[in-house]
Every structure is written in C-alpha cells, then in structure tokens.
C-alpha cells in the first residue's frame, strides 16, 4: 500500500510498471519491501549488507534475484524498466554505493533511473548495528563496532552524509523520496546532512513521512 500510494501521490500513476523503487533493508519489517515492489508491479532494487538476510528473503520467494555486482544490478534495472517487468532484486552491498552509482549513471548518461526511493535501515539504532557505514565491508564494520564504537559512530555519520547527498542529487532531478519512520532523516540531520526543509523550522525535513503524506 505504501509503494502503490507513493506512486499515486508522487507519480500520478495507478500503474507502476516500468517504475523503479530503490531502498534498503531486508531484515525484520523491511524484508517485505521486495514483495511489495512485485505486488505493485514495479522494479524494486533493495540493498542489504547482511547476506543471511538476503538469502532468507530469496528462499522465502520474496526476493526474486540476488547480486553483489552493481554493473549487473544496473543492467537488470534497465532491462526490467524498459520491458516493464516486475522485479525484486537484492543488492548484496551498501545502499550508499547503490545511490552513488545511480548518481554516476545520471551524470554520465543524463538518465534518471529511479522514480521512488526510501530507506528501511534500523536508523533508530544506528550506532549498534542498525546502520552499517559504506566505508567498510560488513564483517570489518562488525569488528570495528566491537573494538572501537566511537570510530564506528564517526563512520556512520560520514556515511549518512554521503547517503543523503546522493539522494538529494537524484531528488533534484525528479525522484520522490520518503521517510519510512525509521529515524533515517533524524539521524542524518544529527550527522550534519542536508535534510532540513528550506524556510521551515529545524524539526521539518525536506522529505515527507509515509505516515502523513502517503498512508494518510
């Protein structure tokens, strides 16, 4: 319902075939995102750093394909988008790399390859494993979290700034991004990322909440 209503509200579209939804998280609640994309008929690319979560969703049949190669992900995205094929593709990697690759595609080809975007990492708990920084691999990050949580926190905040910078670039070209109630925008703001709404007070963000703007 969230994906369908986002399409209706932001894309003015009842039919989401050929539209692309990019997000992250395939754990507890976020695991349903892959299934939702296919039900809605769009192309869903969902990033997840934990291979165990990816394999679980694939085994369930909620995730149609898995890849750890961004070139392959972009190729599959282009093909499914062109042919209007419903697809749920799990990218085994950090979502920041995926967002930044989409910016590179925009810069090099002029194509905006994503229509809808969100995030379902556990940003209510970003410094204890809810969000993994793009600068490190999954296992390396887990080790750093255990041995130097202060450094881990710094890397998470740097990663959040990169994360938002890529989203902002794509949103400026017409992608519609929303907050999924996971404290992503709040933690990004605390990290110093550019998420504040222009001309508003500091409690307002430039991207809407799904509760008020989509489900409401």
From TrEMBL:
The gene is Uroc1. Residues 2-214 form the Urocanase Rossmann-like domain. GO terms for molecular function: urocanate hydratase activity. GO terms for biological process: L-histidine catabolic process. Gene3D superfamilies: Urocanase like domains. It holds the Pfam family Urocanase. This is HUTU hydratase.
């Amino acid at each position: 319902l969230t994906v369908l209503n986002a399409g209706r509200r932001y894309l003015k579209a009842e039919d989401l075939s050929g539209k692309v939804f990019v997000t992250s998280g395939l754990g507890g609640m976020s695991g349903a995102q892959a299934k939702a994309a296919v039900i809605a008929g769009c192309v869903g690319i969902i990033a997840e750093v934990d291979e165990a979560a990816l394999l679980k969703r694939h085994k369930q049949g909620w995730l149609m394909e898995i890849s750890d190669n961004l070139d392959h992900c972009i190729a599959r995205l282009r093909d499914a988008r062109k042919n209007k094929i419903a697809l749920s593709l799990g990218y085994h990697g950090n979502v920041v790399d995926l967002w930044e690759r989409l910016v590179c595609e925009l810069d090099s080809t002029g194509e905006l390859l994503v229509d809808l975007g969100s995030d379902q990492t556990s940003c209510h708990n970003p410094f204890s494993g809810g969000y993994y920084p793009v600068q490190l691999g999954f296992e390396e990050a887990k080790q750093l979290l255990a041995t130097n949580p202060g450094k881990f926190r710094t890397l998470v905040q740097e990663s959040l700034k990169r994360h938002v910078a890529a989203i902002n670039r794509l949103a400026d070209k017409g992608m519609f991004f929303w907050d999924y109630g996971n404290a992503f925008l709040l933690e990004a703001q605390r990290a110093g990322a550019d998420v504040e709404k222009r001309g508003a007070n500091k409690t307002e963000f430039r991207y809407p909440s799904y509760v008020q703007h989509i489900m409401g």
